[in-house]
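Sync notes, pocket subgroup
Present: LS, DG
LS reminded everyone that the earlier model was apo-only. Rerun requested with NAP included. Inputs:
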Amino acid sequence: MEAVESPEAGPEDIESLTVPESYRAAVLLKDEQHMFDGVRAANRNPAKSLHLADVPTPMPGPGEVLVAAMASSVNYNTVWSAIFEPVPTFAFLERYARTGGLAARHDQPYHVVGSDLSGIVLRTGPGVRRWRPGQRVVAHCLSVELEDPAGHDDSMLDPEQRIWGFETNFGGLAELALVKANQLMPKPPHLTWEEAAVSGLVNSTAYRQLVSRNGANMRQGDNVLIWGAASGLGSYATQYALAGGAFPICVVSSPRKAEICRQMGAEAIIDRSAEDYRFWSGEGGQDPREWRRFGQRVRDLTGGEDVDVVFEHPGRDTFGASVYVARRGGTIVTCASTTGYLHEFDNRYLWMHVKRIIGSHFANYHEAWRANRLIMRGRIHPSLSRTYPLEQVGLAAEVVHGNRHQGKVGVLCLADREGLGVDAPEFRSRHEAQINRFRERPGSMDAAG
Ligand code: NAP
């Protein structure tokens, strides 16, 4: 680690390092992809399926880069992968491999997961010009082929678009990672490795979903309802709303998360646990009285106004309420269905009040770069709450699966302790309080951790 991380190490020093034939990685095993068959998703434990294993090092092909991964993070897609829901990710890898060429390498008996990293460029493949060994980088998770014209307006529309470390192999929860060169972005120099690692996926997603014209195209003064406002995606959406002159209405499930939202600068906060909204009546249907109670609460907080944009991702549990509370002409922008993807809502509130539902998925390179730039400039901050060593990645995923976390959960890979990697200490000192506001108080997240 020291040899790679030394600030004095130039490209030649990094290139002279021998790349190991194998490396330690968090893997799922193809042999075990049916281990949870018959078990409800909520009862599937990622700690049982995620293993630490030595796997062979893939050498970078044309346009690819091998990165020494200092840190990574647990995303919800890590949870989906590890509980084999909605399908085992080996199906994605096999499909990708069938496209031939370099893609064939992705079908292995193991899947190295992880869709975030911070690290140092170790080797570049033929044709890579922008990046060179020794550069400190973060990665976004859009893996795209761009051989089809459809992807050249917005690369999220490319038919060969995949989420790296979820729909591809050789992901970031490992000591080494293989990425396409156009996944790399500069590491924000004021952040530690673990702080830099946690934002790539959720920050880019929140940027496109809320700010980009491909998403809700949020405007100054908009009322933005944000579900999970102090969790992964929501912690960035809340910051975008505040930084962009909008009024976030933050929905959370605990006093601690409500306090974090206040620290971020939000004033309108709803603790859904304390107020006990039951949008589903328990008899298989939804209860519009609960939508109205929720809508009245929103109006109480906004001085009688309705919501311009709903930042949706819980899905089935909340979608009916989200469609109801959006104002006439308002937007519901969704990127996920954590609680179930078969949504139900009263369509009369959509068509008669001329609302729009927009689907949003990750971000193109330009959007990811713009989102990373805002972190570099100290406008958006990582929401890291706790960091686990790579050996405990299963526990880290279990904590996220159980919603026992806040903000983002980081994982140390080659970095052997927290706090390393800061290259701009003076700039950092100006933002220290914001960087630390998600930090977990000892013992409050997970006794086992
Ligand atoms: P996360 O950190 O676990 O946050 C999700 C939050 O949603 C929870 O912490 C919880 O916040 C809230 N929530 C959960 N169940 C809820 C319910 N029944 N009602 C209301 N709120 C509920 O996960 P994340 O990283 O933000 O990801 C959220 C979802 O988005 C996942 O399904 C993930 O796969 C997806 N995602 C999609 C993309 C994409 O590109 N399409 C990108 C990133 C993530 P409180 O308990 O505080 O209310």
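DG: Residues 153 and 202 are 22 Å apart (CA to CA).
LS: The pocket of NAP is lined by residues 75-77, 80, 201-202, 205, 227-228, 230-234, 251-253, 257, 272, 313-314, 317-318, 335-336, 338-339, 361-362, 400, 403 (CB under 6 Å).
Action: DG to write up.
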